[in-house]
Amino acid sequence: MNMTTSRVTLAHADAIPDNAPVKVKAEGVNVFYGEKQALFDVSLNMLDRAVTALIGPSGCGKSTFLRCINRMNDTIVGARVEGRVEIDGQDVNARDVDPVLLRSRVGMVFQKPNPFPKTIFENVAYGPRIHGMTSSKKELADRVEAALKKAGLWAEVHDRLHSAGTGLSGGQQQRLVIARAIAVDPEVILMDEPCSALDPIATARVEELIDELRRQYCIVIVTHSMAQAARVSQRTAFFHLGKLVESGTTEAMFTNPTDPRTQDYITGRSG
Amino acid sequence: MNEHIVKSYDEELTQLAAEVARMGGLAEAQVAACVEAVAKRDVALAEAIVARDERLDAMEIDIDQRCTRLIALRQPMANDLRRTLSAIKIAGNLERCGDLAKSIAKRALQLTEIEPLTPLTGPIERMGKLVNARLREVLDAYTSNDVECAISVWSSDHEVDEHYNSLFRELLTYMMGDPRMITACAHLLFVAKNLERIGDHATNIAEVIHYELTGMPLTAPRPKGAPL
Questions:
Q1: Interchain proximity B220–A7, CB inside 8 Å
Q2: What tens digit of pLDDT does each residue of A78-94 get?
């Protein structure tokens, strides 16, 4: 008898087609910190208008990988990156790429909100101003307003734009930092555990924001929360001991992962 | 498989599977007993089966509650999630098997009040044994995580169907031959139909086990017996 089994593809509102355009492409990436190798031959495609979650135990190299995308490893003494990271086919490590310009295309949000010790307005206006993106005060104000609206913060801060950014709550600060990142029209947004310092309500707000933003940007998020990876991402990649073990649709990764190491990690077993 | 870092999580999952196996044991016993009650015209046994069905209902509720708790408190993923969902589904199928056995027991009670149809006792018993064996095999597949065994149960359901079809034809012959036998035959027809349905639940359980163990549904066309 002809016995066949097939993976059922579920019609899902969040489904991203497999042929969706690749925004960020990593190929054979190795990273060394001095003598120690932190990443081993990592190749991963990150799709445009989708959230890719990087998961794995502490020290597995997921943050290191994230930092390759906007060349944050450049700033670490003794760090060396091999292999190729492309954004829209362009090598980010090419000699003629200005890391400052690169980082305006690739925004980054960190674990702890890090607003500048300036007003809310100045926090968001800073990027467009240094990149010379606006030619008048009105234009700048519009850009700040648009970014705050996109970050879902406008309604909460529009009447106190000139008070200190650091006076906001943790969740608001994180959304302020996201507004600051999107004010310079990035194409890719990197997030390194953006919710680990936030309470569940603030976390839900940021997750809702991520879901809004992914319709426009390529988002790559590092998270320790399996549930968060499952909630916000469409693609998930699992790192272990500096290697990319497995990547795929989030649904497949969380219902039926292929590699036993992935299974052990996401189900909370000791490998 | 490696153990969970949180030991109590492992214990809860093990307990859950043990409860499903225990419920399976009771359902299997009910099915075996109801066929015996029909064959031996045993009133006491039939009444005991009807009374015991409540226990299966309570076990299903208990398993559902354990699963709800596990999902809410542990957020199971991957194989753990599949194991939890399959416990709910298997318990549902077993509960239906219990209902069908209870219904057969009730017919056994009514059959004791009319003339016995001795020539048909043998075929009914044989069909009952076959169905019970399917149920036992599929529950063994569950407790031993044996996907091959589950597939074997799944692909042999046509044997039960063939038994049912042959009994159906035989009963029709009796009814046409002597209208006074219609009451007994109608009861036996329902008995056979219920047994056939229990066989279907065993194949449903086989499908659930396959998904639990492999993460993939069984989708091939199942071998079918000849149509009536």
A1: no
A2: 999 999 999 999 999 99
Q: Residue A35: give its domain's CATH number.
A: 3.40.50.300
Quick check: is A6 in a domain?
no
Closest to B86 in 3D by CA, of B70, B100, B67:
B67
Q: Find, among B134, B138, B146, B152, the residue nearest to B214 by Cα.
A: B146
Supply A233's token pair. Answer: 């991402």
User: Cβ–Cβ of A254/B78 closer than 8 Å?
Assistant: yes
pLDDT digits (tens, 9 = 90+) for A151-174: 989 999 999 999 999 999 999 999
In a domain, B84, yes or no: yes
Assembly ipTM: 0.72
Structural domains in chain A (count): 1
Number of domains comprising chain B = 1
In a mutational test of the A interface, the residue from B1, B79, B152 whose CB has the highest number of chain A CBs within 10 Å is: B79
Length of chain B: 228
Rounded distance, CA A12 to CA A212, Å?
Answer: 17
The model carries a pTM of 0.82
Residues of chain A with Cβ-Cβ distance to B81 below 8 Å are 254-255
Judged by CB atoms closer than 8 Å, whether chains meet at A8 and B217 is answered as: yes
